[in-house]
Amino acid sequence: NAGVTQTPKFRVLKTGQSMTLLCAQDMNHEYMYWYRQDPGMGLRLIHYSVGEGTTAKGEVPDGYNVSRLKKQNFLLGLESAAPSQTSVYFCASNLQGLNTEAFFGQGTRLTVV
Amino acid sequence: QKEVEQDPGPLSVPEGAIVSLNCTYSNSAFQYFMWYRQYSRKGPELLMYTYSSGNKEDGRFTAQVDKSSKYISLFIRDSQPSDSATYLCASDSWGKLQFGAGTQVVVTP
Q1: Which residue, of A74, A110, B50, B74, is most buried by count of CB atoms within 10 Å of its CB?
Q2: Cβ of residue A2 closer than 8 Å to a chain B Cβ
Q3: CB neighbour burial string for B19-28, b if at least 16 within 10 angstroms, e if fewer
Q4: Are the Cβ atoms of A4 and B43 closer than 8 angstroms?
Q5: pLDDT tens digits, B48-65
Q6: Are A41 and B6 in contact (CB under 8 A)?
Q7: Could A59 and B98 be called an inter-chain contact, meaning their C-beta atoms sit closer than 8 Å?
């Protein structure tokens, strides 16, 4: 049982490049989340999904897009990377969203130069 | 302004001391309150959760919620060096899990 797996773990991008971060969970969870973590800012919600085929904006959605075509996968896309998107990105999932433990991946360290 | 506010610290205490961590929140709709622990270069892990107001105890950890003042607290008794981590408070409102900035705690031997 792998839990929540994020790929890649590290990436360096040049300004303007695009990339997709993949989150996969094998716990049959309905809810999935993408957060970014920056020093002094904590975890900020980018986008989330309450089920297959659904997505919703979080606190800091600008510059990111997401898709949830399969229940087990939640993709985060950066269409044109900017240095302000240098961060550690965490994916999480939980069963219902309310009163249930959220499980996190190990994070993706992204640097945009 | 974030809906969950938390002092980022760092907070340094000697081994055996009581660690006191606090958060405030602004959204009255929040019902579930959680504390996550995050070790360096790892993802957060759930430590405790509470529903509405009241206390919850689990070993050396006690979580408190005061909904009237929108205040969340975590106490760690008999702190150990292995408790050194970042502690994040979080609240859940209809599937939207939101976190505070996290407080870095250092327990020195």
Answers
A1: A74
A2: no
A3: bebbbbbeee
A4: yes
A5: 988 877 889 999 999 999
A6: no
A7: yes
CA distance A45 to chain B (A): 7
pLDDT digits (tens, 9 = 90+) for B62-80: 999 998 899 999 999 999 9
Residue A34: strand, helix, or coil: strand
Tokens linked to A110: 């992204």
- Six-digit token string for B43: 């993802």
User: How far apart are alpha carbons A51 and A48 in whole angstroms?
Assistant: 9
Other Cβ atoms within 10 Å of B60 Cβ, number: 14
CB of A27 within 8 Å of a chain B CB? The answer is no
For residues A19 and A77, the answer to whether their CB atoms sit within 8 Å is yes
Kind of pairing, strands B103-108 and B11-14? parallel
- The DSSP output letter for B95 is T
